[in-house]
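Example record used in the benchmark description.
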Amino acid sequence: MASFITNNNNKIHLTHCHFFGRLSNAVETYIMDPFVSRIHFSIEHYQNNWFIIDNSRNGTWLNKIKMISNHKQLIKKGDLISCGENQSITFLMEDDSPPKDLLCQKDASDSHFNETIQLDNINHFSDTDNRIISIIKTGEEWKVQGHQEVSSISNQEWIDISNKKWQLLSPDLTQHTVEMHNETIVIDEISLCINTNLNEESNHCALHTPIGNFDLKVRSHHYLILLLARQLASDYDNNLDTSECGWLYLDTLMTLTRLPETQINILIYRARKQFTDSVGNLIASDLFIQRRQGQVRLGIQKIEITKGSTIEYSSTTKIILPV
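Model output (structure tokens):
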């Protein structure tokens, strides 16, 4: 699977969207260096290729050539990325194959990776008291077996092994190919279904469009979508003017999620990217999650929210949002 070798000869396994930087609670790989930005650069896997985007203030170098800021560039095996003072921090792309299932050890849900393990279909780990915990993949489903119990585990869910917290990261490698049609798609033709569990830690989303249905599965940024969908539903029920339906202040989002603005922006970026990966470029991603000064809202007008087995909200009429 895709990996980097650092200047300290450490190996880093790459997730499908991997952030590097100094803001420990918002990146997968933490870089402790005063010349490194909070979100310095990101690596993304898209359509069987890897790309790098420089988001830094002091610059990122690809093969000793300074990158253009916020400009996406293809990277491949053998390429060298460098940053920091005198470009002293380096990442050599050792493997550019697609991302694979990982088990990632973190101190907390909002911290960076301390350790990553590439998973096979059958994996055994020694827990406390030398008891064995097995993580097994059957088809597309992961199961955890240990202490005479068997349970399912979904992408981004947590498991405790030897008093450490590990998170399963299982990338969705399905690349949706969107055929061009004579007709165009508009945002009010798309419906969004959100299914959250009772403690709202697992949020599953699905899109229904004229060109097909797209299972967005469970992702960490779906909790943000859930909050925006609830705001839209509440405003609609309260008969707010449609031009003001759904807008939520960033400060309110930061309070609800207990995340800094930087990480809220990352979640918005990831949500928009997943939307574009699903429907292609037929609709601009900034129509999916819309922004104005200090506020953000969900652009999709037809929504259904299910909590557990109970329907919390379902649109019965269109909410026409001005673009």
